[in-house]
Give the backbone structure.
Amino acid sequence: MSEQIREQVSAFLDGELPISETELLLKRLTRDPELRQSFGRYALIGETLRGTGGASLSLGFAARVNRTIDREPVAPAAPAVRARALRWWKPIAGTAVAAGVAGVALVALQQRAVAPGVTAAPSMVVQNVRLASAVKEPISYTVPAPTAAPAMMAPARLTNYVFAHSKYSVGLGQGNLLSTLLTEDADDAQGAAEGANGNTPRASAAPAVSRDTQTAP
Amino acid sequence: MMRRGSRSRAHWLIPYAAAGVLSLGLGQRSGAADEARDWLEKMNQALASRNYDGTFFHLSEGRVETMRIVHRVKAGRVTERLQSLDGSGREFVRNNDELTCFLPDQHTVLVEPRQDHGPFLGSLPRFGADVDEFYVIQSLPASRVLGRPARVIAVNPKDQYRFGYRLWLDENTAMPLKTQLCDAHGQVIEQILFARLEMPESIADADLAPAVRTEGMHWVRQGPTSEPAAAALSAYRAAELPPGFHLTVSGAQTLGGASVPAEHLVYSDGLATVSVFVEPDAAAQASTTATPSAQPEPPMEGLARVGSGFAFSTVVQGHQVTAVGEVPAQTVEFIAHSVKSFPPPAH
């Protein structure tokens, strides 16, 4: 992210970017997936620093993180997820989880903070971000990375459940769930591009086709 | 057919005044909280009744998706379109009758009839006494979003069985310019942030038409099933629930790919909603299905992430039970594990 764009993003997140510049930024972000990722991380850091995330990060803590970062190479840490959270949806009767079997619903579980009460993201990546608007000195930060493994799979059955549920979902959660369905594929594509750890069970994200399937004329 | 549970009816019709009296009696309600509620109500009205066309970022776990929302109310008819701008080409289009999900990458179109008419961006329900018991609603210091002054309202859960929200509402229109989904510790799980929001007098049909070409795509219809089929399954209920959750809807639902309808139970605490699907297990389905060539799906067990929420699946008495909702993992797990069969109602 160039300095200019960083300033734009910062102003945008502060709600102070002029409309004309916001439109330019939006165009850039829509075109550039890498910039979107940077933007996402930056937004997250912004929230953390502002304390609107509820957990205001003291600079003392930031400094400790910083020192840790200085000692460590830029590498993702091993996920430290509770064992219970690492279970997969799997055929109970089957002896093994067969990857890629069409029609078998397998869900790659998000290998992150899924256990109740576990909020710290185990998969961390080092980002060097200057937060000019928030603190005087540039500091380095540790933020949760977009998961290296595919974040989630939306196999047929899960998609169908979510779709059927969304009708009854009141509250803002509905928008969130539907947004999720709109973007599942991005996860798939990303996972495929990254090799998906080699052993991640995968399933077609295509919704199961019912018997009353019609083909459009 | 879907039947509204009696608790549900009670929930939606609880007089606002009664809720107020209850809360005042307990001394828990302040003028500021009332004002926050009023703003949430204004937001609901704006989301449901105004025309708007906006582009927003959906931020989750460091990922960003850009989406466009178009919402039109014209002659009492609501049409809404939610479109991914980042490549998948997926779109939802909804009108008064049905929700259509275009998945061009899957060559599939999912269609589901709808009974409710809530906007895609979601509105919050009226806050009754039941919501008060499990959430704290408060005003936070004013802020700015998109260069506009914004009211900031927090809806905080009192325990870890539900998520909370923080909302930045446009001072002039009460539209949510920014919303955050938070866990019980206040950590942001997901965020929606508008980069552009217009509220035009009128919206052209073209802005609501899907950009997807549907030639050659599979059309899959899901939906409620006839009453007799529902009766056979209606013996399943959650024996225990997390505090505040109660059954609001029960019925039968044919899911895409299924030969036998699933029972669909909806539990809510007034704000968060969990669906429970109870399906005959794969072996039973295989023996009754008319298409033996269809490969039966094996039972599933475990937890899966669904956007900001979770799904948990288990097997109860030979039935596949799946709970899904925009709630913490422990909530879907709790509910799925407590599902049991009960003797059918005696009438």
In short: Chain B touches chain A through 121 residues (CB under 8 Å). Confidence is low (pLDDT under 50) at residues 1-28, 286-294 of chain B. Residues 31-49 of chain B form the longest helix (19 residues).
